[in-house]
Amino acid sequence: MVGLASLTGLFSADMAIDLGTANTLVYVKGRGVILSEPSVVAYHVKDGTKKVLAVGEDAKLMLGRTPGSIEAIRPMREGVIADFDVAEEMIKHFIRKVHKRSTFYKPKIIVCVPHGATPVEKRAIRQSVLSAGARKAGLIAEPIAAAIGAGMPITDPTGNMVVDIGGGTTEVAVLSLGDIVYARSVRVGGDRMDEAIISYLRRQQNLLVGEATAERIKTSIGTARMPDDGRGASMMVRGRDLLNGVPKETEITQAQVAEALAEPVQQICEAVMTALEVTPPDLAADIVDRGVMLTGGGA
Fold it and tell me: Which of 57, 164, 175, 191 is least enclosed by beta carbons within 10 angstroms?
């Protein structure tokens, strides 16, 4: 893992990649975040060989809409690599896209990894980045990277809490003096929220919707709190009626979405409470005064 002291040197070298379950971000020093695309790859399988057809936004449009010979998948699951070969092709594509050339110089790359990733998972990420063409690959814990990006004074002798809600995992961490005092990675994130919405509509309205529709509901009217008026905003969604198998359109309200998301939100809240319970009293008092920094796509 990369320590805070050496982070600046790695950043100044070439680039940093947040290889997320839902989205991948690429940062280049002096230019900022110059790429943010879905972590999705579409490929054609022929004679046992995978040929990449699309990566990122173009591939995401194919999710759930491909014929039998084409697959669109997310090579990352719960913050770590699930398909090594496809992840390597995705990383290679994004590096080439950043450098606007088909052949690129070998950059130094630092990659964010979940705090709870196992040594095997970390080794797989590093090897995938090196195989994609990096000259050197370093890893940094997601909570530290998120806190630095949010401008939190983590080098001060005060308690700081960051809750990074990603696509596959939520990282809850307490930081002080440039290091992690406590961290916990729970495998609950935006994907689990999408699944909760799909399950709710199936159970309550006999409506089957896809992942793309569930994500649109979440990002449009998603809320963790019940609206004051008991209903909130609403939107129309389309899916398949499970009773007769025909297309159906129905309305869903913010109150219903809050009910659907109650379980994954509760799991995140429990992780935060656990962190506060085990944090030293003085640092916990700092967090009460300073508040909690929410970050990530699910925040």
Answer: 57
